[in-house]
TrEMBL record, chain A:
Residues 30-53 have a biased composition (Low complexity). Residues 138-390 form the ABC transmembrane type-1 domain. Its main location: membrane. It comes from Streptomyces rugosispiralis. It is found in: Cell membrane. It comes from the Bacteria. This is Sugar ABC transporter permease.
TrEMBL record, chain B:
Residues 1-27 form the signal peptide. Belongs to the bacterial solute-binding protein 1 family. It comes from Streptomyces rugosispiralis. Pfam families: SBP_bac_8. Keywords: Signal, Transport. The keyword Transport applies. InterPro entries: SBP. This is Extracellular solute-binding protein. PANTHER family: MALTOSE-BINDING PERIPLASMIC PROTEIN, MALTOSE_MALTODEXTRIN-BINDING PERIPLASMIC PROTEIN. Coiled coil: none annotated. Transmembrane segments: none annotated.
């Protein structure tokens, strides 16, 4: 079944047609195999269509200045709102992260002791409980991100491809169904999951029908990787191999870093994938419907099959959206808080502790607001770095002249 | 274009800073002016355990209003720690509020609590371990609101089914081990309790150890006595006659007892209310905890009535607290929502009214109060986290971690 039914005529063209004069489908132009520009005007890392060179004769400077003043006047309400409710609080939090502040005085009058980078030092370099907890939360979140982001993106893409098919019956109903988990409140879903995944809950009952004895999901702090390897007899979880147990990084042994997400964390990952893939499916769906039909027709004329179509037409055209989805997914997963707050608060065995939750509990339960703010800023830097990395990895590549920067 | 952008940004930032700098959201830092009027308005913030408690406190406040002519507003907090922290930072704290023992030292250290212990003449009437817990820098800061202790609750049906009689109620660790083993099997676990030091700590205390010294200035976690106590717990865990509440799909010992999954549990006097509400037909009996190598021991818990240092009505607030913590009021609270009076005199009266609670009342004589050291919340929650895996971990390692974390936090606090 062709992707789009309008390919009828194109399919009958001989293979050699591609080397002849092209039908030149609209602005798409070029070889479909390297198509990127039509569907990707805002490609990450790219500077957009190169068709906007700076006009050499700029208007007189005076007029520009007047325009600038009016411009600032018009944007000032938004600048003020953003500044007052976003920039200023961030700067205040940055200041608090340099203090030893217990939350019971005014942090802007010198009552709280200024400690410089001590809060960051405690978290990153000094051996102690604070660093161990922070390292544990980072480890948990790395596994959470590494599993959740690819799974939710992949699932969303597959769902979008399915519901984008013209010949599919009940597309509307399916779209609604897939999108539904995203509409539900995450607290409500978390609570339902708590019941489903109890030791004697519905999931374990289902598993018992096929003869599998499910774990006590939310009380199981074993890492899945070490448990799996232990089950295969490669490592003994109770006595980890010397190299891994003897070396440590940031107060956690290599073995603890590598033991994988706990069973409890996997349940939260499952929940996250299930609830978010609907939203991302919607984004993918919008992008899929935005791919110019001419592009696909041209590809069909080339005689590509469905796999090639997906690999060389659809995915490249989806790249900016893929970047968007991956970025949104990464940021959201690094900041995971509500599911953790409802489902475990770090339990069992600190394996569901995340930096966002640790920041909260350090500030409000231990009255150490300085360190709580410091955790938040380390998290911010981390997210910025990872986003930059993604931008770089998904940048537009190709030897096209004028494009390589 | 670039310099202009920078200028604009600078001007904006300066304007914003000026705007917040001039605002009064962060008030001055002077000593709060005291209100000396006859009719004062007191605000009370409580972290309630439920409607019964809210109602009892509101009734008490209404009675005080009539007596004193002051006006009292009682509000129940949704997230006590957060609400209090915000009100302290904003210099608008409630006049009187509950202080959780976990948070007590943090607030006392930050200077948010008005130490009024010396204004209460009969402070000695309050249980000693609790007074110690709510003392900071040598001063009794606030009065314990009530008290709760731990005892052993036994499901008498399961007890009889296992062929045990009243004579078999365990009084020593050996006897506990024996009966727990006998009661285990057929979907029942001998002893079920929560995986936290607030329960398992009784065994440390019974072995003669504890987390800190009596004055809470030194860590004493890393001791052979503590290791012996946790070692006993570990041996029960390994034999399967002791399980954590989560392992049997319950959230606390009382639920396990009520559902018949546990024959025994270690819980406090709040168990009475829980059982009455959820499992009224389950017969149970409360006996004292068995004695360990160092004799009888249990743990006591409490909140205290904090008065804000920044309150403008401190003397009226202390007056209100004196009224709320009077023997007569404490007995009413006991009746209202099942806590025990923290006054020794009122406790005797309570024992007469509630003969079933004898084990809990008597436990006050040998109870250990809660740990109240600034910044210890994370130290103790890390301890609890490690206790979750006590079955597979050496108690000595867990205690060494606790010792190290505690010492670091204490050093940081100085």
């Amino acid at each position: 079944m062709p992707f789009r039914t309008t390919h009828r005529t194109a399919r009958h063209l001989p293979r050699g047609a591609s080397s002849g004069p092209r039908p030149a489908p609209g602005a798409a132009g070029g070889d479909p195999r390297t198509a990127g520009s039509p569907g990707a005007p805002d490609a990450p890392g790219g500077s957009g269509p190169k068709a906007a060179p700076r006009t050499p004769n700029t208007p007189p400077a005076g007029r520009r200045r007047g325009e600038g003043a009016w411009g600032w006047l018009f944007v000032s309400p938004m600048v003020l709102i953003l500044g007052l409710f976003l920039v200023l609080p961030i700067l205040m939090a940055l200041w608090v992260s340099l203090l030893d502040w217990d939350g019971q005085s005014n942090p802007f009058t010198g009552q709280a002791k200024f400690v410089g980078l001590d809060n960051y030092r405690t978290l990153l370099t000094e051996d102690g409980l604070d660093r161990t907890l922070f390292a544990t939360s980072l480890r948990n979140n790395v596994y959470y991100v590494a599993l959740t982001v690819p799974l939710q993106t992949g699932l969303a893409l597959v769902l979008a491809l399915i519901v984008n098919q013209r010949l599919l019956r009940a597309r509307g109903a399916l779209r609604t169904t897939f999108f539904f988990p995203s509409v539900t409140s995450s607290i409500a879903v978390s609570t339902v999951f708590l019941f489903l995944f109890q030791g004697s809950g519905a999931v374990n009952t289902l598993l018992s029908w096929i003869g599998v004895k499910g774990p006590n999901w939310f009380a199981d702090s074993r890492g899945v990787l070490s448990t799996l390897l232990g089950g295969l007899g490669i490592v003994d979880p109770d006595h980890p191999p010397g190299v891994l147990a003897d070396h440590s990084f940031m107060g956690l042994s290599w073995y603890e870093w590598l033991s994988g997400p706990s069973v409890a964390m996997c349940t939260i990952i499952l929940l996250a994938v299930w609830t978010t893939s609907g939203t991302f499916m919607l984004i993918f769906l919008a992008a899929l419907q935005d791919i110019p039909r001419e592009l696909e027709e041209a590809a069909a004329i080339e005689g590509v099959n469905r796999r090639q179509m997906l690999r060389h037409i659809t995915l490249p055209a989806l790249r900016p959206v893929l970047f968007l989805v991956l970025t949104l997914g990464t940021i959201a997963t690094w900041q995971v808080f509500d599911q953790v707050y409802v489902m475990g608060q770090g339990a069992p065995g600190n394996t569901t502790l995340t930096p966002a939750f640790l920041s909260y509990s350090t500030a409000f339960d231990d009255a150490d607001f300085g360190q709580g703010a410091a955790i938040a800023f380390i998290l911010l830097v981390l997210i910025l770095l990872i986003t930059a990395l993604q931008r770089w990895a998904l940048r537009e590549r190709g030897p096209r002249p004028g494009r390589n920067r | 274009m670039a310099p202009r952008t920078a200028t604009a940004a600078l001007v904006t930032c300066a304007a914003l800073l000026a705007a917040t700098g001039c605002s009064s959201s962060f008030g001055g830092d002077k000593e709060t002016q005291q209100d000396t009027g006859a009719k004062q308005h007191l605000k009370v913030l409580i972290a309630t355990s439920g409607d019964a408690e809210t109602k009892a406190v509101k009734e008490a406040a209404a009675a005080y209003e009539k007596r004193s002519g002051n006006k009292v507003t009682v509000e129940a907090a949704k997230d006590m720690n957060q609400q209090l922290a915000q009100s302290f930072a904003g210099h608008r704290p409630p006049d009187v509020f509950y202080v959780n023992s976990d948070q007590f030292a943090n607030y006392a250290k930050g200077g948010s609590l008005y130490p009024y212990g010396d204004k209460v003449k009969d402070a000695d009437d309050f249980a000693e371990p609790l007074r110690t817990a709510f003392t900071y820098d040598g001063k009794l800061v606030c009065l314990p609101k009530d008290t709760s202790t731990l005892a052993l609750a036994i499901n008498t049906d399961l007890w009889k089914k296992a062929g045990l009689t009243e004579k078999d109620y365990p009084t020593s660790w050996d006897e506990l081990r024996k009966v727990a083993g006998k009661l285990t099997g057929d979907g029942v676990t001998g002893l079920v309790t929560s995986d936290e030091y607030q329960r398992l700590g009784v065994f440390m205390k019974q072995a003669g150890g504890w987390i800190t010294d009596a004055k809470q200035t030194k860590m004493t976690a890393d001791s052979a006595k503590n290791a012996e106590g946790l070692g006993f717990v570990r041996s029960l865990l390994r034999s399967g006659s002791l399980k954590y509440a989560k392992q049997v799909d319950t959230s606390w010992g009382g639920e396990a007892l009520g559902k018949g999954k546990a024959a025994m549990t270690i819980e406090g006097n709040w168990l009475t209310g829980g059982m009455k509400l959820d499992y009224p037909d389950v017969p149970y009996k409360v006996v004292p905890l068995p004695a360990g190598p160092a004799g009888k021991a249990t743990l006591a818990f409490s909140n205290c009535w904090g008065v804000a240092a920044e309150s403008a009505h401190r003397s009226a607030a202390v007056d209100l607290v004196k009224y709320l913590s009077s023997g007569e009021r404490q007995l009413k609270f006991a009746e209202g929502f099942g806590v025990m009076p923290s006054r020794t005199s009122a406790l005797a009266e309570y024992a007469k009214q509630e003969p079933d609670a004898k084990a809990w009342v008597d436990a006050n004589a040998y109870a250990q109060g809660p740990v109240t050291v600034a910044g210890f919340d994370k130290v103790l929650s890390q301890f609890n986290t490690e206790l979750q895996s006590l079955r597979t971990t050496d108690p000595k390692k867990i205690l060494a971690d606790l010792q190290r974390n505690g010492e670091q936090t204490m050093a940081k606090g100085d």
